[in-house]
């Protein structure tokens, strides 16, 4: 469904199988509504790899009704804890590379069941990609580990960075939009609380999705004394020149941006 999971799935056949993304790169998955052409593509698909957990917005019900086989990854992995008062589980599971590693066997099995490619090819390419994910995880841990322990408090636009933060020892002390959903609207009282938290916890940056603009973020940053707002690639891959055109690059680039802001 998303450009991120499309890239991951592509790697499991070493690029030998065409894998499309129903939600265009740069689009907000929470607000995405499928067009008639998307519905036709869904019905013709041999397999659909979906995130689930409410991420896909209006696309979710269409997938449920489709005759195409769908693998819902959110139901196959451990969901990060949600301590933000939002009852909805955090759907941004790919922001933890360990979760992606755990999802590889699930995707590979679904591809084998749907006879997407030769099983030996899927096994070989999956193993190669797992090696790359393990190295990515180690490199990211080392990179984030360079941030001083007393400088790891961060604020995010909406609750999209929690799995990454929990994996690598960052502390999300507040979110401008108090939800895992980017469509959520915050109250003035909540925004005032976020400003106070930034000042009290000496937060050095507000991290937001590069493709999603919220005037509330700018207002909070301004009221907190001009705290920098840093764009990350959270819900979509970037273009060829962004340093985030693949999942591996996305995590590496996000880690570098976070380290650059906090050190």
Q: Which features would summarize this protein structure in a list?
A:
alpha/beta, Rossmann fold, 43% helix, two-stranded parallel ribbon, 9% strand, 263 residues
Structure description:
- By secondary structure, the chain is α/β, with parallel strands linked by helices.
- It has two domains: 3-141, Rossmann fold, CATH 3.40.50.1980; 147-262, Nitrogenase molybdenum iron protein domain (Rossmann fold, 3-Layer(aba) Sandwich).
- The chain has nine helices and six strands, in the order ααβαβααβαβαβαβα.
- It has helices spanning 3-11, 36-44, 59-65, 97-113, 119-144, 162-168, 188-200, 215-223, 247-262, and strands at residues 48-50, 70-72, 153-156, 171-175, 206-209, 229-232.
- A four-stranded parallel beta sheet has the order 4-3-5-6, sandwiched between helices. Strands 1-2 form a two-stranded parallel sheet.
- Helix 5 packs parallel to helix 9.
- The model has no long low-confidence stretch (mean pLDDT 93).
